[in-house]
Design a protein that fits this description.
The structure holds two protein chains of two kinds.
Chain A lengths: L5 E11 L4 E12 L4 E5 L6 H9 L7 E10 L2 E2 L5 H7 L4 E4 L13 H12 L5 H14 L16 H13 L5 E5 L7 H18 L2 E6 L2 H7 L2 E6 L2 E7 H6 L5 H8 L39 H5 L4 E4 L2 E4 L1 H7 L1
Parallel strand pairs in A: 3-8, 3-9, 6-7, 7-8
Antiparallel strand pairs in A: 1-2, 1-4, 4-5, 9-10, 10-12, 11-12
Chain B lengths: L1 H12 L5 H11 L1 H18 L1 H4 L2 H5 L26 H37 L1 H16 L2 H12 L3 H28 L2 H8 L4 H37 L11 H8 L8 H28 L6
Helix pairs in contact in B: 2-13, 3-6, 3-13, 6-7, 6-9, 6-11, 6-13, 7-9, 8-9, 9-11, 10-11, 11-12, 11-13, 12-13
The chains are: A alpha/beta, B mainly alpha.
Chain lengths: 325, 297
């Protein structure tokens, strides 16, 4: 295959606050091929959303700074683009779905006009009638009667709002769709519908997707590749089969799976990972996970673990060395 | 009963009430606001059709010494003043001046204030600091004093009065709009618009200002009432509209000389001022309630 659609190389992002510098991303590398779905999993504060915002170049001005690394999109480094060039890429080639459909639609604009806005911005050559037709098509595609385009967001339910958001994001048939926890605010049945619809549309339009979530069930359903993030690092990365069925795992991934409630088990308590995410202003030395790791050794406290590669399956842990040996 | 009806129409046509009619519906329930709107409509109607009711040159400014200081009667329902001019006709034509002046000056103040407030609120940081400190300087001087000094500096004319009012009220609007925008800017749909490749100017104009329109309308209505008062006060002090133009404040000033013998010369213009200011305040309060999304349904 040719080069990947999106490739992130050694990305380092810091937030500068009044008290200290927050190390949000500490050198993450990811790649995503055309038509693939990459799941980004991890606890709150692991840097998932920061990764997404870095790709869009939408980190808060002055506070967020990309210190190092490259984000290659179709071979071009997005970090070298000017703001005007980025505006053409946003929406057109990369679009983003936000977490909360309740607030990501403008409450005083008709939903049809909000879809239309994307078309007006990026397809000025289309005639008004064609644009309107496209709006109708997009709404029908996400399962909303086109006649409802004249309604306002408050007249829709949460699931329908999220579908409108998806319609906006896909109206320009982007090459990459970044979905930041698209189903977190929805209930489980609607979640399933929306996910199903998203993967259908993805196949139909041949879009790649970066799915950010902390729901492992969602990941298993939709993703081709999975990256597990912890404290601004990718600790495990591989094909979905490797992550869900593989023999070796990063202790953190094991912990994540261990904390899932099981339907047929009778345990009184869940078994979560002990402790909290480290303070990103003062990250621990060595392996970032060592204070919470059940297999922690002296070496983990001092040395940053090397990457253990097994085919496409990547694990960043000292334990792996021993086993390979 | 009513809800049944609405649900039916919804299922039939997929069409629901638009924002404007929803606000109107809520406003209709507020009796005081409707009273304000009613009075305001009558005042505006009288102002618009003033020429049909009384001719400006002969009745309003033309002197007729044989008719001076007549008490209210059938042919002069509000009486006549010391120059024999019909007070009712003068009040109607005066309303034309007061209302149009306050509307124009408010529009100018809203337009400029909205731009300043929007830019300051949206960009934040140093831009915000510089613009808002400038506004604070203007705000430190009460609108009344501000207008007096501007008119005194520029000279007495209608245009200067307009400029004075606009400048005096720009900081008020800039502040209101900035604070509204600060709360809107953090919302996700703004970020979503940015993620769609929308430019800053477009985000401000298409996404943020329409969301801030409620507070702007309310503030503009309330401030219009205050502006009418300032216009009248300035005219009373001889700094606003020059006689013989029939401004309410000017009329008060002229009536002052004969207040003992003909108090109606002061009473009727006073009532006109009070009514217009009160109706604008009632309407403004009503609009504030009607436009508040938290009070929906």
């Amino acid at each position: 295959m040719s080069e990947p659609l999106l490739e992130i190389k050694d990305l380092v992002v810091e937030y500068h606050t009044d008290e200290a510098d927050v190390h949000a991303l500490n050198g993450i590398s990811l790649s995503l091929d055309k038509g693939e779905t990459l799941g980004l999993v991890g606890e709150t504060g692991a840097g998932k959303t920061t990764t997404a915002l870095s790709i869009m170049r939408l980190l808060p001005k002055k506070i967020g700074e990309i210190k190092n690394g490259q984000i290659l999109f179709e071979g071009e480094n997005l970090l070298d683009k000017t703001e005007a060039q980025m505006r053409l890429i946003r929406g057109e080639s990369i679009s983003m779905i936000f977490q909360d459909p309740m607030t990501s639609l403008n409450p005083v604009m008709r939903v049809g006009d909000q879809i239309l806005e994307a078309l007006r911005l990026h397809r000025p050559d289309m005639s008004k009638a064609e644009q309107q037709k496209k709006v109708d098509e997009m709404l029908e595609m996400v399962g909303i009667p086109a006649a409802r385009k004249r309604e306002y967001p408050h007249q829709f339910s949460g699931g329908m709002k999220q579908r409108v958001v998806i319609a906006i994001a896909l109206a320009l048939e982007p090459k990459l769709l970044i979905a930041d926890e698209p189903t977190t605010a929805l209930d489980v049945t609607i979640q399933a519908q929306v996910l199903q619809m998203m993967s259908d549309l993805k196949t139909k339009l041949d879009t790649s997707m970066l799915l950010i979530t902390h729901d492992l069930g969602v990941v298993s359903q939709t993703c081709d590749k999975v990256a597990v993030m912890y404290a601004g690092e990718v600790v495990e990365y591989g094909r979905a089969e490797d992550i869900f069925l593989g023999k070796q795992h990063h202790p953190y991934t094991e912990g994540l799976f261990g904390s899932l409630p099981e339907l047929n088990a009778t345990a009184k308590r869940l078994s979560p990972i002990n402790g909290l995410m480290p303070d990103p202003m003062a990250l621990p030395e060595g392996c970032k996970f060592h204070p919470r790791c059940p297999h922690c050794t002296e070496r983990c406290k001092k040395e940053i673990p090397a990457v253990h590669q097994d085919g496409e399956h990547m694990i960043r842990c000292h334990l792996m060395d021993k086993e390979v040996r | 009963m009513k809800t049944e009806q609405t649900t039916q129409t919804v299922t039939q046509t997929y069409k629901k009430r638009s924002q404007v009619s929803a606000v109107w519906h809520r406003l209709k329930k507020n009796k005081l606001a409707m009273l304000g709107l009613f009075i305001l409509c009558i005042l505006i109607g009288l102002a618009i059709f003033a020429d049909f009711i009384a001719d400006y040159d002969t009745v309003v400014v033309g002197l007729d010494m044989s008719q001076r200081l007549l008490t209210p009667r059938l042919e002069h329902i509000f009486g006549t003043d010391q120059f024999g001019r019909d007070v009712f006709a003068r009040i109607i034509h005066g309303g034309r001046l007061s209302l149009s002046l306050s509307i124009i000056s408010m529009s100018v103040a809203v337009a400029i204030g909205a731009c300043i407030g929007a830019v300051a609120g949206y960009y934040g940081g140093r831009v915000d600091d510089v613009l808002m400190r400038l506004m604070d300087i203007l705000l430190a001087i009460p609108p009344m004093l501000m207008s007096i000094s501007i008119v005194a500096a520029l000279g007495q004319s209608m245009i200067n009065l307009l400029i004075a009012l606009a400048i005096a009220y720009i900081p008020v609007f800039a502040r209101v709009i900035r604070s509204t925008i600060l709360s809107i800017k953090g919302q996700e749909f703004v970020e979503a618009a940015r993620a769609c490749g929308t430019s800053n100017a477009r985000i401000i104009l298409r996404h943020i200002i329409p969301n801030a329109i409620g507070p702007i309308i309310v503030e503009a209505t309330l401030t219009m009432g205050a502006a009418i008062l300032v216009i009248s006060s300035l005219s009373f002090m001889g700094l606003g509209i020059e006689p013989p133009a029939p401004e309410w404040g000017t009329m008060l000033y002229e009536g002052r000389e004969v207040i003992r013998s003909s108090p109606y010369l002061v009473i009727f213009p006073g009532i006109a001022i009070a009514l217009s200011v009160m109706s604008l305040n009632l309407l403004g309060d009503g609009l504030r309630d009607a436009l508040d999304p938290r009070l929906k349904n």
